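Researcher: Here's my situation. A collaborator sent me these components and asked whether they could plausibly form a single complex. I don't have experimental data yet, so a predicted model of the whole assembly would be a useful starting point for our discussion.
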Amino acid sequence: MKLSRSLILDMSAGPVFHVALLFSAFLLFRGHNAPGGGFIGGLVAGAALVLRYVAGGADEVHRTVRVAPELMLGLGLALAVLTGVAPWLVGDQFLESAKLSVDLPLLGTVKTTTALPFDIGVYFVVVGLVLAVLRTIGGEE
Amino acid sequence: MIGLLLLYGGVALLGPALSRRLGARVLFLCLVPHIATLAYLVSAWPRVAGGRSIAESHEWVPALSLGVDLRLDAFGLLMAGIISGIGVAVFFYARWYFAGRSDLGLFAGVITVFAGSMVGVVMADNLLLLYVFWELTSVTSYLLIGIDHQKGAARAAALKALLITGMGGLVMLGGFVLVGRAAGTFSLSGILATPPSGATTTVGIGLVLVGAFTKSAQVPFHSWLPGAMAAPTPVSAYLHSATMVKAGVYLIARLAPVFATVVWFWRPVVLAAGVATMLVGGYRALRETDLKLLLAYGTVSQLGLMVVLVGAGYPDLTFAGAALILAHSLFKAVLFMVVGIVDHAAHTRDLRRLHGLGRRMPLVFAVSVVAVASMVGLPAALGFLAKEAAYEALLHSGNPVVTAAVVVGSALTFAYGARFLWGAFADKPVRKEDDVALEVAAPSPAIVLPSVVLSILTLVLGVAPALGGKLVTSAATAVGRTTELPKLVLWHGFTPALGLSGLAIAVGVALFLRRGSVDRLQSRLALPAGLTTPYEHALSLLNRVADRSTGVMQNGSLPIYVGVILLTVVLLPTWRLATDGRLPSRIEFADSPVQALVALVVVAAAIGCARARRRFVAVLLLGAVGFAVAVLFIMQGAPDLALTQLLVETLALVIFVLVLRHLPEQFPRRSSRLATGLRLGVAGGVGVFVTAFAIIAAGSRTHPSAGDGLVERALPDGGGRNVVNVILTDFRAFDTVGEITVLTVAALGIIGLLLARADGGEGEEPGK
């Protein structure tokens, strides 16, 4: 069935999409200390992509995200696993986490842990999954 | 030593990456680890000569007593020298054999992995490590036989080799475990120093022998080796004559001096297998018309002879066996390389069609003569020294029947050696329709060079026995732990051994001259064509059983799958619950009236979902169940969980709607009352069970909750205040790795399935 397009949806999908993406990144980074994290952040970003899809169809999603879902899935998984393997280099166990404290301009001292890159990997896997679904199941007949 | 193995691995990874740019020259890169190995062996020689050894150990999986324990003694050095030395020759040859091809990345990588694994086999001092390398050689052999994977015959041959050697390898692993348990150690040198005995050891050694027999193509497991000739010639020259097939001989040689006396059946079984292999191989080699198959059966025959020599466990026979291993590697690699050259030049390997090549490529003919002379044991070639040593030792400590069999085997060897030379090079009449009017291009000097070098080596070692003698003596000393060994001697005088040599050659000459009669006799004795071999029989049986059981287990009915799974979930734990479960003293049904209200919404939506006639309504109601559950999570103070639940429900709803586009609007009408009743029964059972389980489980806590500890440790250990996320990304991060792997696999599955169904090219790359 072909949905007729709605002007309001068309116009609002773009801005909402970007705000939602920003919000998903916010959830991702604050996840260690407040509700959020890679899974939730990835799901929000996925929902944002679904919004794009509802407004403009599969083509709109293609135009928005040019990365192939396979690549995003692979990169996410690789990032998570590499974060897990990295402690071996300093003689620690697989996936052992370490606390980091980085001085950044503008932001000041940022405290985080090595769990963050792991969570970013999770985020990309979830987004990759949604992308894969939209591009295949959501593709045109 | 481990550095060498890592070098092989590193080059194997690098090779494919560079193969596009380098073309066939990538094989020069693959020479690097061989040359490094040779250099190392030369430098190590003073330390291992005379039966000493160098050991080296690295921890790997201590819990399984699996360590990278490497040990190099003179026998290992001889084998590693063959692997890397013949490797240099064959890789150099392959560079010209494959000249002009740019798709050699896979070949170069796999054959380098093979070479490294083979070096690992002969250096491993831990049975489990040896097994790992052993199987690596089987797998790489599979990939190399099937390297022309467009050809069905190559794939079938590769599979056959893998199934037979892989089956043997598994049996051997069982044997290793038994022997290792009996000895209390998996160290090869430890087991040989203080050998275990008893029933466990006897069975274990029997299993190990099966593995060695399959790998070294001993009767009745020999049929994979001729099939493996589907591989490109460099692979046949390297894996299936010079190196891999000698792994079984190597293992038998290692174990024989000790276990030939400990295990009662060792000598009868090993000698019988060796003799049978030697004779069957020689007999078949006389019949083949494809030069490569002729050589393959010749290899089978020679492997049988090697097993006879090293398998008896007597030092002088082991000595002759070590000499034969060296001689065989040199001459058989040359012969295979020659077949490749002839095949390239004349575009056939059929000896009924080849003629007159001897005049057109005299150099190739010359190296072949040297190689065949070594194979049949003519003086001045290394093979003669090995044969003489073998006869001396057999007359001294061998069984007369075995000695007679070796003479027969040698006569056959002479006959098929002569047949090879005659078939490939002689001027002979050919049938008109077979005459290919051979437009033979002269081979480039570079492709002949390795054969020339190896042939010169055969001659030099054959004329100056002292050169190779020291290496072979040290190798036999290392294996047999004795210094009372004969020497390689060019001229023993007129001894009985020389007489046996002469007898074998005389019979061989007669067999060759009367080849017409031999052919007729063989074709009369031949089994009818089309007879199913045991291998094919076993394979088709396996397929039939698999078909049948799949038909029963995977009948394709979704209701039956779900029904079986749900019934299992209900019935198995219910049995435990009924016997051990206790109801808690007080059951709280709801914390607040609002909670009860939300729960009612969940129940109502679930019932509505089950009763819905239209799919779309069912999906919406299912979503309502999910959202209401999310509300329950929020009321329990689990914002993370609620957030995840809401998002997943939203996405699931969208995906459902996308799928619904392809389905009819309504569910199909229920077929019968019985089916409906069954469904209701299963569903009701699950509902009752889950409720009961939740109540009973809540009342059965015997240990304090794990949650409190996690909450306490979240900030100090995990560095985060959100316990849920610290668990996901830190405490139980390994679980998360598993989950995202599943997500990735599922996503790739969706992409694969749906794009495969869509029209090939268009759906291939939707983004571009």
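Model: Some features of this prediction you could bring to your collaborator: The first strand of chain A starts at residue 99 and ends at 104. Chain A touches chain B through 57 residues (CB under 8 Å).
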